[in-house]
Design goal:
By secondary structure, this protein is an alpha/beta fold. The protein has one domain (2-184): 3-Layer(aba) Sandwich (Rossmann fold). It has helices spanning 14-25, 32-42, 45-54, 62-75, 92-104, 119-133, 140-154, 156-163, 176-190, and strands spanning 4-8, 28-31, 83-86, 111-116, 167-171. It has a five-stranded parallel beta sheet, sandwiched between helices. Helix 1 (14-25) crosses helix 9. The protein is globular, with a radius of gyration of 16 Å. The termini are close together. Bound molecules: adenosine-5'-diphosphate. Adenosine-5'-diphosphate is lined by residues 10-11, 14, 32-33, 36, 53-54, 58-60, 65, 87-88, 90, 94, 137, 146.
Length: 195
Amino acid sequence: MLNIVLFGAPGSGKGTQSAKIIDRFGLHHISTGEVLRDHIRRGTELGKTADEYISKGQLIPDELMIEILDDVLDKEEAAKNGVVFDGFPRTIPQAEALKKLLAKRGTELHAVVGLEVPEDELVERMIARGKETGRADDNIDTIKKRLDVYHNQTLPLRDFYINEDKYLGIEGAGKVDDIFNDIVDQLLRKTGGDK
Ligand code: ADP
């Protein structure tokens, strides 16, 4: 049983690699961005609040985001068998909260997979994704704001997890399958071939 955080800038390939990791290790996928977009699609109160932040490229406030995640962990039974967290945590308070949320459920975080991709490639990927999928926050103005937010609020988590000896740095530019093989190798090495 593994709990893994997939960490990286917007556009770094977290969604793509999450899908492959959950397949390979039989884990449950929780993407906070997907959870929020689902609320927006369904027009819930939470969705309306989330949309105001997401459309500006800002983060949803920590307290609200942590409450949402706590709720998802309760509702999604499969989370008991191990989770790939995609897009959470994005701030230090969220990382502290994740530790508590997992401890409360008698488990812990085993590794943080950090996808490291040069900034110009991130921008290119998100522009392409915006054209292909129509995703509203993949436009150049919002992309720039999201990258600023990433540098200021999320990147400090890299050192946080290096200090906890959980961070696995992955070269995230290149072929999807090569990146995935690197992730699997490093995860198996880190978790002692568990699973
Ligand atoms: P990306 O990694 O490409 O930005 P996501 O789907 O992970 O895509 O997130 C989209 C948006 O959802 C973020 O820009 C942010 O506004 C919001 N969001 C997602 N996860 C979190 C989180 N853990 N904390 C705060 N806001 C979040």
